[in-house]
## 1
Amino acid sequence: MNSVQFTINRIQPVNAELLQQAQARLDNKTKPPGSLGRLEEFARRLVAISGICDPDLSKKVIFTFAADHGVVQEGVSLYPSEVTRQMVLNFLAGGAGVNVLARHAGAEVRVVDVGVDYDFEGVAGLIHRKVARGTRNFVKGPAMTREEMLAALRVGIELADQCRAEGVGLVGTGEMGIGNTTPSSAIIAAISGKTVAEVTHRGTGIGDDALLNKIRVIQQGLEVNRPDGNDPLDVLAKVGGPEIAAIAGLVLGCAANSLPVVIDGFISTAGALIASELHPHVRDYIFAAHRSVEIGHQYMLERIGAEPILDLGLRLGEGTGAALAMTLIEAGVKILKEMATFEQAGVTH
Amino acid sequence: MNSVQFTINRIQPVNAELLQQAQARLDNKTKPPGSLGRLEEFARRLVAISGICDPDLSKKVIFTFAADHGVVQEGVSLYPSEVTRQMVLNFLAGGAGVNVLARHAGAEVRVVDVGVDYDFEGVAGLIHRKVARGTRNFVKGPAMTREEMLAALRVGIELADQCRAEGVGLVGTGEMGIGNTTPSSAIIAAISGKTVAEVTHRGTGIGDDALLNKIRVIQQGLEVNRPDGNDPLDVLAKVGGPEIAAIAGLVLGCAANSLPVVIDGFISTAGALIASELHPHVRDYIFAAHRSVEIGHQYMLERIGAEPILDLGLRLGEGTGAALAMTLIEAGVKILKEMATFEQAGVTH
């Protein structure tokens, strides 16, 4: 816990003075004040988060954390667990959705095995940080031990520290793990007190009967493990997963390192929710990429206090939404850096 | 009218079979079916519109049409008319919002003087297609003659024809004209039968009294000119403007040339609305870039039947929203062209 607590202790509020300075600079550009809406918000927040007047977004990285889930045994997903490892290889070959969209956004995808039930020994291009070969089925007991959960959390923190050292300007989260909408719904139910039915949806596209089964499975998991909603790390260990813990760690690490972090969809937001429950200023560093089709997503976003950037009916995960949102955040920063002022352009105002 | 009617007669429905073929191809990519939401819609529509299985978006062009408005005499805008010509020079120098965002999207900005009250003779880089030195004040009579309106409409059509000849893959609309939310509100009121108050908003940011004045001015313009809501070109001439007519022509021309066209915000949508009232299949070629802050925008979009791609609180115009939306449409096309299939990636499905 010490390195986790050390990271939490490093988190500071963002620089409010820089926020105002950046907005004043935007107001002097050749446009009516505020007329670029959220692009202006993105620009001023990037300045305030990074502490840099002209943020450099030339290095952008999306982390796609992969892990397996024992709860798949309960029939909560349309796909078998082997798809997790197959998709990891697809990410490494550059053929998945997140690869296409990250290339489009000028971002690098880093794929992290934090808990896949497969031996990737010798596989090149993969970041090998496995903390367990998948979770245990949470209807029978805790998904992870506290040690496994903390190890996964530290993976995310260390990757954020490394981004800071490398001069990365914008970090994105993503994940792959067959069955992982199930722990995500369990987390928001445990933390918010919403009923399981209110926060549970179709994942990759399950039918009505499978949805009822998924709700029952999550209810059972919560009854068996009784996670303490006021202890986010207890919830994370008992009904979460290694990729969700790594995302929570990445978000914490970004906040501690003054790095803006774009969270992807439902599962990523579950990780970000854990992080933001651990320290109130974490939310200042978060950009919510999009509004997922998953019905529990809105509750998470409200609790974090984040307004999603896009609403395109996405429900793929991997970091696909984060990649798209990065293009819009970067557009905002370019407005700040590249637009002419009234004086430069000789425009009356 | 002949060349306009000739263009309208060329408009065909999009290829429904190609729409299905493109979706079938998307469904074979390594993701749950439909999980990339509207990106998939963008991809299949691009295929169906262009008639090309792998649409080439390497050439993207945004047209920013500029014109002045006599109704500015009535105090409807926060800015004086001279800002229109100043901004034209800013566009040509590359310093305006649309320049920054078009560069970000990999699109070219083409600036068209279709009715600015200023002599740009000899100014390089500008497309000189002036049909009048601004409109007349519509509270005193028609904004344009029918001939001026048709001339502006033909400018847009010819530019669309030229895009087709050049192999442009995606066209965007934009505009600059101090006072031009006023004719745009007048157009939607005349066509939809909504009250002026329901469709009139703050433009560049006018206060409460100025808003009441703007509503009164539009009401007066409609009473004086009595445009026929069932004759879109009558509405366009009497209470529109040259840049709105050129946008209507561009949208018609794109539809006639099987070119997808991204319409920007409130004023561009007024032009697209005129075009879509002239032929029911025009809407199949339209992508609505974003939901503007202007309250009349939603009524226009509903009437066209277009769902906006972005909702970022934008109200600048110029083509800024179109540039941002282009990045998302291109992302969808890249999904179609670049993602691996289940077979290629060896992923179980």
## 2
Amino acid sequence: MNAGPRRWHAQQAWLARGSGGGLARDVLIEAHGDRFAAVTPDTPAGRVPPGTVRLPGLTLPGLANAHSHAFHRALRGSAAGDSFWTWRERMYAVAERLDPDSYYALARAVYAEMALAGITCVGEFHYLHHGPGGRKYSDPNEMGRLLIAAAASSGLRITVLDACYLAGGFDPGGVPRPLAGVQLRFGDGSAEDWAERVAAFGADPHGMVSPHARVGAAIHSVRAVPPGQMPQVMAWSHARGAPVHAHLSEQPLENAECRAAFGATPSQVLYDAGALGPRSTMVHATHLTARDIELLGGTQTCVCMCPVTEADLADGVGPAPELAAAGCALALGSDGHRIIDLVEEARWMELSQRLVSRGRGHFTAVELAAAATVSGHACLGWPDAGEIVPGAYADLVTVSLDSPRLSGAVAGDPLTALFAAGTAADVRHVVASGADVVRDGRHLLVDDVSGELAAAVRAVLS
Amino acid sequence: MNAGPRRWHAQQAWLARGSGGGLARDVLIEAHGDRFAAVTPDTPAGRVPPGTVRLPGLTLPGLANAHSHAFHRALRGSAAGDSFWTWRERMYAVAERLDPDSYYALARAVYAEMALAGITCVGEFHYLHHGPGGRKYSDPNEMGRLLIAAAASSGLRITVLDACYLAGGFDPGGVPRPLAGVQLRFGDGSAEDWAERVAAFGADPHGMVSPHARVGAAIHSVRAVPPGQMPQVMAWSHARGAPVHAHLSEQPLENAECRAAFGATPSQVLYDAGALGPRSTMVHATHLTARDIELLGGTQTCVCMCPVTEADLADGVGPAPELAAAGCALALGSDGHRIIDLVEEARWMELSQRLVSRGRGHFTAVELAAAATVSGHACLGWPDAGEIVPGAYADLVTVSLDSPRLSGAVAGDPLTALFAAGTAADVRHVVASGADVVRDGRHLLVDDVSGELAAAVRAVLS
């Protein structure tokens, strides 16, 4: 993070969800350290201090990728298989092979790809904690720490959502199945042992382990954590004000097994365990009952949609508009990284609704932009990020508006045009925590993102 | 089109659907005039004749965009509206304003955008025939001819699918509603008058009006052509071996009105009128009965899916796998040009099926590639295009495999990787009819595609 005042001049900018759509022109943006100090629209380009960086096009707050499994990137381009469950077998085979070195190299390259796509903060849903067979590393948080180092090396802030993973599913009546195979690398034995390990990260009382990293909690899913153990995870989180994430109702089979095991839907089980609330984020939320939607909305739980992954894995289309209407904030994640492009994720949150509802206009461009920025940062424990306002983290992403995709598409509102037809390929400049990370489409900290991606994936698959 | 032998050396190439997946390495490709003369895999890079153009990455046959309405591009980025029918009002407002000059400028820029996306042949579904109020231009085919000129100026081959459009819908009992407003610009009065006008294009007995352009027929839809008039359109087409396209069952309302008017589904009405068959292509085919699928498959009718437009317009997801199983060839179109990217269209033909079926693996990469190439060219009347084989049109599109999207995604089959994660932004080189059109991502015939797009759209909307 570089010190001292830095200045940018944005030709057009979307500053925040509030101020009348939030679009402004000729915005002089000043940062001190990692925070915005002043934001002044309608500053003529000729009136800016020397050393000000010009940002032609449309500038937004940095994007937050609220749900990532970095190592899933190694599966991009692999043949489909016929279901979520056959896909999971392939994903497990990759997890089986990862060691700290190969995991660091892969995560660094994947986070660099995220930076090129305008992402300045990632929520890494992390469950690969231990060595083969479940053997603890000398530092039991070695894997989590290398994710933090990987994010730092690629210029991103990170929330490690450290997942409690105790069971390999539940039989009818709620009898837990023991962890097996690679799942042994995920498990800590009990929520108490999980909490003890996570405490050893040595985070400060606010959950920060460095200026760019914080630790949060995750309940992997109702498949992996007995309801009776969930309150200990929540207690850990309450004591620190830390975010808690969980996979929720991604597949019908998960719902069926949960009903057979516990006599309730996954949402109800999590609600009864006290796992829903304003600091909680449920990922996917694809197959819900009306009552589930009431529980999530009534507790102001955030929902993270991963529309491209949910299409890739044939999950289905979740009730995003109904959840928003019920009171849930919506965030976005690239999850399995079939693609890393939050503009596309936002577009398909809208378009997938159109396919099933036969209606248009479920989300405005401002609502999509908010999901990709302020709501995403908030659900990762960074409430003071995702808006271009004084005091917020100085994160910026600038997209050009003159590609063939966007030329002639911005007669109206450039934000609408971006989410209609733009892609990550339109990202030109990225600033994270006050530091330039991407300039003219080139990553400033990772020289050869493509080369590192290819090498890291080869190392994992070969 | 330049004469004399020309040569390219493709690092990797997908040659054709047949030959065992069709992937080959180090392919020396030779063209004479606008046709491939020789295709020789496994030719070491060191052994190629001087003047051979290197094509690093993956080379495919040129892509065919089987369904285009060029002027709809002006609506990209406009606010959504709440239904297909409100969108249609906005589209009509654009059609209202077009004149030959503004239409040419827009079509030329849109076709240039297509070339940058690897498209070497476009099927323009053309119904804006006449001046305001339906006044005929001095050349009654002036609008069609300017589309042909626009394609030539951007380096594409074109099939003008000249649409017969006679009615503004049908009331129960089959009573036609008269054309109104801008629809007057679409109408010729009768199929006989339509055929007379189209004959005046002066196409040769094979339907060619120039080496790069042919004329085909279209029945706009069962909303616009009385069943009794369809046979004359088909007779015109049979006499010339010309393709015939029609919009089919895009919206439930179209089906309901058709049943009320004619007591049958649109597919049945078209079948009874003799409008289905191997030279016919039905566009969308979203809302079909099992019987409709039998009729389309049994007649070997081609179906053109436009997955992104079908999402954009909230049409729904058509039964593409069932149609393919029934015997229909599948093609792809960008239709309303919300985006112009046939790789994305192909991806979403698969992914949209996953969203509704909850299963994966509906189409292989080879099937998706065939839809975007050989099947698309065939349904536009170019059966000798879309494969890299001697005698076929010399159309090539080369995508780089080293973008962050595709790096580390090609451990397996590069064709699978392309349709999993690639986009039009990965297109580097395009050859159409033996001539270089795009080199290193730059259009060689249209200097400033983005600038022309912006100016042409501004001229139409202002």
## 3
Amino acid sequence: MLKKVLILLFGLCLWFIPAPEGIDPQAWHLFAIFITTIFSVVFNAFNILVASIFGLVVSILTGTLEPVEAYSGFSDGIILLIVMAFLIAKAVVKSGLGNRIALMMISRFGHTTLGLGYSLMATDLLIAPAFPSNTARSGLLFPIVFSVSESNDSHPNHPSSKDMGSFLMFVSMFGIGLSSALWLTAMAVNPAGAAIANEFGLNIHFGNWILAAFVPTLVSAIVLPYVVYRIYPPNIKNTPEAPRKAKEHLSEMGSLSRDEWITAVVFSFLVLAWALSDVFSIDKTVVAFLGLGLLVATQVFTMDDIRKEGEALSTMIWFAILYTLSTYLSKLGFMTYVGDMLALQLLGLSWPLAFVILVAVYVLFHYLFVSQTAHLLALFGVFLGAGISAGVPPYLLAFMLLFATNFFSVITPQGSSCNILYISSGYIKPQEVYTYGGLVTLMSFLIYMSIGSAWLMLVFH
Amino acid sequence: MLKKVLILLFGLCLWFIPAPEGIDPQAWHLFAIFITTIFSVVFNAFNILVASIFGLVVSILTGTLEPVEAYSGFSDGIILLIVMAFLIAKAVVKSGLGNRIALMMISRFGHTTLGLGYSLMATDLLIAPAFPSNTARSGLLFPIVFSVSESNDSHPNHPSSKDMGSFLMFVSMFGIGLSSALWLTAMAVNPAGAAIANEFGLNIHFGNWILAAFVPTLVSAIVLPYVVYRIYPPNIKNTPEAPRKAKEHLSEMGSLSRDEWITAVVFSFLVLAWALSDVFSIDKTVVAFLGLGLLVATQVFTMDDIRKEGEALSTMIWFAILYTLSTYLSKLGFMTYVGDMLALQLLGLSWPLAFVILVAVYVLFHYLFVSQTAHLLALFGVFLGAGISAGVPPYLLAFMLLFATNFFSVITPQGSSCNILYISSGYIKPQEVYTYGGLVTLMSFLIYMSIGSAWLMLVFH
């Protein structure tokens, strides 16, 4: 109760502080609402659904947002893609196909939980260049992680979730950030960033991106799962018998059932359609709608199954709201204002110091964003420009900010749309992400800024 | 399988028929998609969720609608209001308050199922003038109907649903159409209709509306529950012991629990806020969001409870899609085009014939609409103008069309946003509404056109 009161007082104080010169009062009020909403999750005053709903209510009742603006996130393609991916993932699990793929993975890599974590990450890193939507990729990986956890008797919303599932979910979740940083084509906003960098005379393409990225990203991919293993450990670490048992299970299962066949075909179709969606400019969300429609029409996933998936709705509600609040904060000019202020502060600093401050602030800023795309579009140009004026080597700064746009994805639960499936799985609590995601982001920052910077200086001197 | 193929062939034929002169090809294609979607539900080729998803997918992949247009329904205030009302209703039931109110009703009116149906309808007719949103009203009545059914051991998605729940749900659902027809202020679009009628020189206000409406509406309210009782009968008709048992249960329950108290306060707040929302121009949907937020924050309704409410999501998906398809059909001019064509056909007919044709076509047109508001805004003016030119007495026609805008609400499952809670309850199948809702609409049409017309001719001669 005390926490609730303190958070509300904090919000009220912020609200009544006059907006700093140059910031629209409406933007300031929205900032007060948004940051109070986030803090009430961080400090566990309210759960993320309640906090978001109150954020929405206050933004409408105070007239800060019009109802039609405040509700707009609910029809955003990304939000609907997440909802569809969530339901499709459940169908993949229910059909038995998820279990089969999981058993195949366990039979190869299942001696240790850490080994499973690494194998999940390796899979992601390899398939990533074909998936320009990291959200779609999370829709492919999530059901496999889910099935691996279930096959090891680690169940969601249950004490056994910490046995293995929470760890694997977490590794796969932040792994998507790393795989997105590795390839120009692994994340929708990377090419947009390259285009913005181009306006500053930098030529960033598929080839020099992978050259720049592979050293710090692979180091992170090797180090960070082990870090997570220490700070957010699975209760069950060694499962020497698991591969043999998995093989037995597989031979008991026999050949694919009708439902598995249908799911395999639909799933392969989704993989293909998502991979080719940019070439043929097909909307990614409608592909997901079609996939779900086929799975329900063929009774692989039934109406009774959907009736149990209220979690998808609750996730949709909180994510749509946070997404909208952050979008309007950006639209109202709050983000660029702070970016511009920062650029002024950098005048006269040595470039290495300016570089560190810029990247650190860029990463910290992600607490305010509910979309990597929105973050990059709002701030990447501002920060790149400010850094170049301050004498930071342009390629160094550009690549580092582009990598950061991906590796900071787990700094908050809502930091990336591809976190959402993992968090709504019932294996990871939103509050936990603030702690462990924050730590992992810090570690990524340190690796990229040290090894990554050294490598970039070597290659792009 | 044959049905699926036939429906698809029908849709393809319609698609490739050239658009009639004067209709935009895009509007014609959308019409083909929409009507095929509806038919595949009517003829049970697909369930309403699958049919709607395929409708959405086809409309996007063929380029008939842009993705951003096709998804727009998901952020519509009415859709979100339904989702919130759905969850709040579940909280009212879970808290025990719904059960208490239900037991109070049963202890008074519970000797027969028909008696309960009448008492529900009477409640609605009496509270309606204070509720300009019939959707909000459905959010208040639905949990009570649900609890009455549950208290009589009639459970949703279960054979026992037909014992009592299906009947009561159906009576309450179409009862909202009648209560909305009775009062100018019982439905958001009634005043808009009065304003349009004013452009034709007609003065429609609270007083002459109730004068015009009470005779046919009360006759319908007396006759139609009995009609439903015959065509869609409850398996359990007499429960002579129920009132006594209900009283016993009530005394066993003792005084209100913590959860009941909180729910009662929140529920009363909702009643008040919805009733006053037009006076203070408060968004009705945000009131519902606040109500849910309070119930979750106080743990009356928990995250575990929401996890089970996948039905709300599935309802949201199909209703948002149908709503959007219909909205764009109207936006693309399809509706007014057909209305104009009709007006041409009426030239030279006697006015009574023109009157009957106009009202009948106006009612049948509702198969194409997923919103009473959209229907009235698209067609009321066109039909009123055509009828006045054909010599139909203006007040007679205006009132009859305004009443029809309300009593045709159950002609399809998606015919009114206030049907949605009832249909997603698990007591009524969407397909059943096409049959029984169609019959009840026909009966309403006959009562209003005979008794109602005679009364209107007497009063507004």
## 4
Amino acid sequence: MDDCIFCKIANGEMDTQFLYEDETVVVFNDIQPKADTHILVVSKKHIPSLIHLNDEDTTLMGHMVQMLPKMASKLGINSFRTIVNTGAESGQEVDHLHFHLLSGNLRPFG
Amino acid sequence: MDDCIFCKIANGEMDTQFLYEDETVVVFNDIQPKADTHILVVSKKHIPSLIHLNDEDTTLMGHMVQMLPKMASKLGINSFRTIVNTGAESGQEVDHLHFHLLSGNLRPFG
């Protein structure tokens, strides 16, 4: 998706500092943090939101969930909130699937 | 887990009305709703939280994520928030992995 900011970030076009990267996901800090720690786990594949998932995406979704405790451990966090917004009404701001991981002084969201 | 309320619910010991059930998950309404719609997707397997996942749980996690848009569709919802709390500090109240799906007039959480 040429005009998708998260595709550009995932493709390395934005010089984003990745906290983690593999074949299917990238992880980086949210630029508008709503907690002391606020990172995003983002699929490299352009999927607009959870309602756009196909059956073939099950393994990718499992991997994205598994990334959450792995990143928390890496960052020394043992309690955190995961949020996935689907649709603008829920607070989704970028139409490319991403999991928020937040910890410490959480502020209202969406 | 004998003393786990979500294990009892998943085992059918609590006469809970399931919105959905299959071999690995059950879905039911949160008894203290924090939005117009507030349902829980709960694994039948007792996993205390995301930080207790094993590699073998990847498919289950993928399935739980896939359940979210499927349930939203079933309920006629096209915008929703998914929350997974990990650890008491984040607002986790039951030590058995569950995904919250919320939609409509979301109230503060945790």
